[in-house]
Amino acid sequence: MSDPRLSDADFDIALITAAFRLAGEEGWRNLNVAKAARAAGLSVAEARGRFPARTAILLRFGRLADQAALLDAPDEGPVRDRLFDLLMRRFDVLQTHRAGVKALLRILPTEPFTALLLASATRRSMRWMLQGAGIDATGPRGALQVRGLLAVWLWGVRAWERDESDDLSGTMAAVDTALQRVEQAASWLDGRRAKPPPVASGAGEIDPSDPPPIDDPPLPESEA
User: 118 to each of 38, 162, 184, 202, how far by Cα in Å?
Assistant: First the structure.
């Protein structure tokens, strides 16, 4: 039985923490909401009401990561520095649940529905990061800006997976260099179009000095 004094936010955090711990120990495929609730000492009935499916854990986790990044978000300094700060705050949240998040990332290539759901949620998160840094990120220009920051985030995730340093120095280097490269390549912070740079050979390997290029922007997204 869960503690009746738990707020909704505390309930969610407790369940998510247990879920990612179990995922790290047993794999994401072996996880379900009821198992996570029992592991956290929470009401399974209440968990069912708040997390109707395992994917709801991912969506709530992403929103919590956004909230942590946006809390007291910096409003001074260059936009690129503000974005760097916001993205690294999100990585700090991932780092807290490192084993479970890595277990999730390992199974994404074989679970296309989960991968698509996570990709859509991450695009929304990147729009929030841009807007938290003071960028409007709406309309056709916003679509380009979201795509640019999404590429930076995904590049950072690849580096984070291999980063065993205590201070995430490898991740920080990858994110900082990717932000610089994308800004130079596409001028995406102010929405101007530019020809993407060529893809260097060996781009499949993690090389913070050679982030991937940004494609032409998609059609404007309907959701804000």
Answer: 25, 20, 28, 27
Closest residue by Cα to residue 160 from 215, 123, 105: 105
When computed from its CA atoms, the radius of gyration of the chain, rounded to whole angstroms, is 18
Rounded to 10 deg, the angle between the 139-162 and 79-96 helix axes is 50
- 94 close to 146: Cβ distance less than 8 angstroms: no
Query: pLDDT tens digits, residue range 162-188?
Result: 999 999 999 999 999 999 988 776 555
Residue 184: predicted pLDDT: 73
Q: What end-to-end distance do the CA atoms of the chain give, in Å?
A: 39
CA–CA separation, 133 and 201 (whole Å): 33
Please give the angle made by the CA atoms of 66, 221 and 60, to the nearest 5 degrees. 25
The predicted structure's pLDDT at residue 187 = 56
